[in-house]
Structures are given as structure tokens and as C-alpha cells.
Amino acid sequence: MRRNPSMTSLRLFMHVAHLRSFSETGRVANVSQPALSRTIRLLEEQLGTRLFDRNSRNVSLTSAGEALLPIVERLTADFDHAFSELAQTFAGERGRVVIGALPSIAAGLLPTAIATFQAQHPMVEIVMRDHLSGALYQQMEERSVDLAVTTPPEADKFAFTPLLQDAMVLVVRAGSALDDGTAASWTIFADHPFIAMAPSSSVRELTDAAMIRAGVSARALYGCTQLATVGGLIDANLGITALPQSTVRMLPSATIAQRPLVDPVIERTIGVAHLAARTLPPAARAFLDHFVKTARAA
Question: Quick check: bond before 122 cis, omega within 30?
Fold first, then answer.
């Protein structure tokens, strides 16, 4: 079976064809002249034709060599270009990163981090998907998301880097009697309608746990999945709620006010997660490192 020529032998053929000199090619390519001659002879045997006519003074291409040269030039250019792109991919300079995030993070800290990252890595495509925490972990397991900015995982199959603490605050209608700027106890929800987030949300888990700790019995109304819905209900004076402070910026500031919540003080941890057993693509690893630095500097 005939073996295909190696890229090394084709490159040496191209150098000889351009320089028209075996000795000069050996010097430029740092190859001994006997080794170069053996390489060209083997290449001619593999192709079944003579590529050069030469004597003690001159080296010239045969008609077969003339036909081969543009092919080799194209092959080596494509080869070099492909491996240049591959090197950029390995270095995290090229690629596609799919980032999942809680809606509050997707609208807050993440856009700035993406913008500064893409300024430094213009050939990396960033895709962002905002979902609740449970959906984000499922998508990471399915490998449709590379990494996610979310709350801590329940399973040890995920690696998690904590970045910030997000305190729960009381959210009320601006200008109402409850908008007095002071700290409030969780017992306030025993006396006012409680606008709750959906049971599947991480925020609902926090509010339920806080009320148990505070010994408060509050009827959860509505079960919202969207913060805009919560804002509309509060603006209509239909109740109050507790939200992580990072989410309040997503509500209309003209009609919404917040107060600290104490007894107990409840915080959620926000960080970056990814599958522990999966080696992140280089671009995803580069973004992870960049986001961690950005979040800790904020």
C-alpha cells in the first residue's frame, strides 16, 4: 500500500522548489543535506515520479514538480491556518461559551463581565441563557450549558466557586405606610399579604426556610415566576414580598422600596458552577477565570 507523503517532506520539497538549492534549503530548514536528499528521494518514490532535475550547479523542477508545487503551497497554507486557529482555540482565544445564569445575575453583573471579556477575546462567541437554579443544573448535566452563575448545588457532581452573598430584603410599595426605611422582622409577613415566588425557585426556598426559622405562618399568594409580575402586584398594593437584594434592581424603582430583613438575616450564596468531571473548553475556562476576577472586584 502506498503511503501518503508527510507534511514535513512536502514542506522540504516546497523549500527546495522555491530556493532551487538543496544546500540553502538544508541551512534554512536546519536539516543536513544527506537527510534532505533522502527525504526528497523517498517523496519521489512515494509519488512514483521524479520531482527535480539537478546537477552540481543547478536544481530545477520537472513537469511533475511544477504540477505538485501549487498543490503543496495550498496544502501547507491550509494546514498552517487550521493549526493557527486550533492553537487559538486551545488558548481560549477562539470558541463558543454557553453561560447560564439566574435572571438577576443575567441582568446585573454578567453583562459587564461579558462585555469586558469579549473586548479581550473578540473571536469567542458568548451565549447566555437565564433560568432558575434547578433548570441551570439540569442543563449543565445535559452539557447544553458550559457553566452557570447560580446558587450552590445540592449534588457533589458539580464544582462551585462562591463569589458573593446576596441578602434578602423586604420589598414594599414606594410611598406606602410600610416604606419607612427601617429594618423589619420576618414577622411582618404574618400581618400583610405575602406575594410569593414559584415553589420551584431558589428564592421561594429561602423565604420558606426563613419563615420557619422566624416562626411565622404566612399564606403564599400568587406563586410568581417573573419578577416583573411581582413588581406589578406590589405596585397595585396587593401585598409585599422578600427578595434577594440583587433582584430588586429589576423592579421599577419609582414604585418599589426596600427595607432590610432581620430576625433572621437571610443571605443566598451566588457563585459559578460547572460539572466537576468535565474538562471545560478552553474558552469557557478563560471566561470562568475572567468572571471570578470581575465578580470579586465588584
Answer: no
